[in-house]
Amino acid sequence: MPGLQQELIFAQSPEAPCRLLMPQAIAETLNRFRQLRVRDLEAGGILLGVRRGPHLEIVEATGPMRGDRRTRTEFVRRDPGHFQLAQRHWRSSRGTVGYVGEWHTHPEPWPSPSGIDIAQWHRIVDEEHRPTAFVIVGTQGWFVARGLRERGCLAGTEPWTTLLCLSA
Ligand SMILES: [Zn+2]
Questions:
Q1: CB 3.0–4.6 Å: which of 22, 64, 95, 150 could bond 58 by disulfide?
Q2: How far apart are the CA of 91 and the centre of ligand 1, in A?
């Protein structure tokens, strides 16, 4: 029953003007890729969702695909399938569901972005000019950030989230 499905809501504070909504089912999908064993490789994909004013609502996340580069400590999204799926959603939703961000895993309990992650996120924020969500899935918790060309942070209402400012 989708109506009863729990959603995770990330916000800066209870009064914050921007929220990130993620259905529990998608959170569980991402958690399935946690690198719990030594041989587990990094995974990742793109986040597809709807923008409602300053808010982001995630509706789907792609998972690792055959053409992606995956090692223990690196995920490089290379497979064109990620954006092919994004285009299909865009067309079938008549332009309401589209690319809203990125996710990937880290082999650490409480992840924090690497220098490469930050550089990539800044490039994406520079191109998008709209709020964007970035998620890193650790073995115990997540790192969730909202990227926007403004001074603003995203902090979590869930105890396992931390915050990041991406100010341009
Ligand atoms: Zn990373």
A1: 22
A2: 30
Neighbours of 39 (CB within 10 A): 6
Q: Which tokens in the block code for residue 74?
A: 């690196």
Cα of 69 from ligand 1 centre, angstroms = 13
Is residue 98 within 8 Å of residue 90, measured between CB atoms? yes
pLDDT at 127: 82
Contact (CB, 8 A) for 99 and 130: no
Measured in angstroms, how far is the CA atom of residue 49 from the centroid of ligand 1? 21
For 137-158, write each residue's pLDDT tens digit.
Answer: 999 888 888 776 654 444 433 3
At 24-71, the pLDDT tens digits run: 889 899 999 999 999 999 999 999 999 888 788 999 999 999 999 999
Q: How many CB atoms lie within 10 A of CB 40?
A: 15
Half-sphere exposure of 152 (CA within 13 A, CB side): 18
Q: What confidence score (pLDDT) does residue 1 get?
A: 37
Per-residue pLDDT at 157: 35
Active site positions, annotated: 42
Domain chopping of the chain, boundaries? 12-165
93 DSSP assignment? T
